[in-house]
Write a sequence for this structure.
């Protein structure tokens, strides 16, 4: 193999040991981390942009009497997280009620190093948001074909991903607030990234970081992690020749089988109670708020339930609608809901195509994004909550569109070249009048 382009030069025997190359196979264009330089570039851009916005929002909150907390009359989640984290940092964690996530605990350990300062926690969230942008760019690099060098169109893919992930409105907003959403986004993107590396390279070494990121993902939002595992299992069942794969990769097959059984067991034990309408309605009430709409699930029959669920799910995709914009956070969410409304038919069509036919590896992003949205149709009718819940699906969709843009760009070039090459004129069969 000849020398690689840019920062992906071919590694020689003198630069790396045979053992490292045998485990990670860094000379493989699939395994090599493409867009590493572009990911670092967009990490810096995203960090600076989020830091400036966080400082402005922090100053605005103080000037309007909110004490640095979210100044738009939210559910005061950031105040609760800060109170719990401060208690953990001061050694009073035993007096606190049980929490469904360990985010306050880890935030409290961070406060042990810095002190219980609200701005320090916000800066940690800013760092997590910028890291999520970098992982999104790296995730785009794992979707390239193995025989394609990182040419100009692939660099367009990296920069499109970095640009839209950096400017995604809800990600910028919640990175400036002491909430777990940016860490949840980072964990979800890391799990998808390691799953894509495992799928592309077929190497068992990626099972370890995949398992760690999935455990963190489950701790931050359990049903989202179960939906992620179900999406990956469905994609692998559809795309792989299972018998041949099990023979060629017995270790990976055994671990994936055990993991799938564990996910099924945990999902049944953890979420079996949600089939009860009373329990489901209680959960929907927890997500309700001032920006909720009067959408209900119809439990009278299975067709009625499916129809009401489809309406709820569509609202999760496109909320808030323009006439719901009564608060600044609704206006921020509207910036992302309008493009989602226009791209919603494309999303559904590409998802169906990924399930029906054996698609390219980038289809895994769309399958995971769609499965992430499915539980929210059961739970949320709140436009503000929907903007937080669809962070991971929408960023994955951004990566998918950026990757597919390269293919669409190539197709457009082929069509233009075909149109430019005109066939020669057909010889006429009429006699020449000058020779007659």
């Amino acid at each position: 193999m000849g020398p690689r382009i840019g920062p992906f030069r071919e590694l020689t025997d003198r630069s790396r040991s045979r053992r490292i190359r045998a485990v990670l196979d860094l000379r493989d264009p699939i395994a090599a981390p493409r867009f590493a330089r572009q990911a670092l570039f967009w990490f810096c851009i995203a960090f600076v942009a989020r830091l400036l916005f966080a400082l402005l929002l922090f100053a605005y909150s103080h000037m309007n009497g909110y004490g640095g907390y979210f100044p738009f009359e939210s559910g005061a989640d950031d105040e609760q997280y800060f109170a719990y984290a401060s208690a953990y940092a001061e050694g009073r964690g035993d007096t606190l009620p049980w929490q469904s996530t360990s985010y306050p605990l880890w935030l409290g350990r961070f406060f042990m190093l810095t002190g219980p300062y609200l701005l320090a926690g916000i800066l940690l969230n800013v760092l997590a948001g910028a890291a999520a942008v970098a992982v999104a760019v790296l995730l785009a690099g794992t979707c390239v074909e193995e025989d394609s060098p990182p040419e100009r169109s692939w660099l367009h893919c990296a920069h499109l991903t970095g640009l839209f992930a950096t400017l995604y409105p809800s990600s910028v907003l919640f990175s400036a607030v002491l909430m777990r959403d940016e860490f949840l986004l980072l964990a979800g993107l890391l799990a998808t990234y390691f799953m894509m590396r495992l799928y592309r390279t077929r190497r068992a070494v990626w099972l370890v970081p995949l398992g760690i990121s999935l455990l963190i993902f489950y701790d931050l939002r359990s049903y989202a992690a179960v939906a992620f595992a179900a999406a990956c299992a469905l994609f692998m069942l559809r795309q792989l020749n299972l018998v041949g794969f099990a023979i060629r990769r017995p270790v990976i097959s055994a671990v994936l089988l055990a993991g799938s059984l564990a996910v099924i067991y945990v999902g049944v034990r953890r979420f079996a109670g949600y089939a009860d309408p009373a329990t489901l309605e209680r959960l929907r009430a927890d997500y309700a708020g001032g920006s909720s709409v009067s959408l209900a699930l119809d439990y009278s029959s299975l067709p009625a339930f499916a129809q009401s669920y489809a309406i709820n799910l569509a609202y999760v995709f496109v909320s808030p609608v323009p006439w719901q914009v009564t608060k600044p956070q609704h206006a921020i969410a509207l910036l992302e809901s309008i493009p989602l409304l226009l791209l919603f038919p494309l999303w559904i069509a590409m998802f169906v195509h990924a399930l029906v036919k054996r698609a390219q590896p980038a289809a895994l992003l769309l399958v995971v994004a769609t499965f992430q949205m499915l539980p929210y149709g059961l739970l949320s009718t709140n436009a503000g909550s929907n903007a937080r819940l669809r962070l991971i699906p929408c960023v994955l969709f951004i990566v998918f569109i950026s990757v597919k843009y390269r293919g669409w760009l190539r197709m457009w070039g082929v069509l233009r070249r075909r149109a430019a090459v005109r066939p020669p004129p057909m010889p006429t069969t009429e006699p020449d009048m000058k020779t007659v």
